[in-house]
Design a protein that fits this description.
HTH_MarR-typ; transcription regulation; 7 helices; mainly alpha; Arc Repressor Mutant, subunit A; about 10% strand; globular; MarR/SlyA-like; MarR family transcriptional regulator; about 140 residues
């Protein structure tokens, strides 16, 4: 395996990625707060709109402890945004599933995020495809195997 690059261009790219992540996280927290959610609650709700998931899988996706996810899902459930259902493949496993209100809240939250959409709108379709493909390639390089 080749050692990581530390040339000026690589450092500049890493710094730019860090700036993008920080801006996105800040805006995401603000958008979540407008819906009376924490950033973690909003992330869980967003994940669940893509697919129903067991607590352990949510924890893997968020890289946190399953016990933390249980508390987050408990609070979302208390607000009527999420419900727990038995997994049809394994009745012992409980899946977290967004309610209609939860899915609607997640959609409104996602639609309110301007940071990612505005700058990307300045790029052509071809430029966005290139950026997407490069980001996928970078992420793929991080995966073990």
């Amino acid at each position: 395996m080749a050692p990581p690059r530390s040339d000026p261009l690589t450092r500049e790219v890493v710094d730019l990625i860090g700036t993008i992540v920080a801006r996105y996280n800040s805006e995401y927290e603000q958008a979540a707060a407008q819906h009376a959610l924490t950033g973690a609650q909003a992330k869980v709700l967003g994940l669940l709109t893509a697919e129903a998931l067991p607590m352990r899988r949510i924890a893997e996706k968020l890289t946190c402890e399953p016990s933390n996810v249980t508390g987050i899902v408990d609070r979302l459930e208390a607000r009527g945004l999420v419900e727990r259902r038995s997994d049809p493949q394994d009745r012992r496993v409980k899946l977290a599933v967004p309610t209609e209100e939860g899915a609607s809240t997640a959609r409104r939250l996602r639609d309110s995020l301007e940071f990612a959409g505005e700058p990307l709108a300045q790029l052509s379709d071809d430029e966005r495809r290139v950026l997407r493909d490069l980001l996928k390639r970078v992420l793929g390089a991080e995966r073990p195997g």
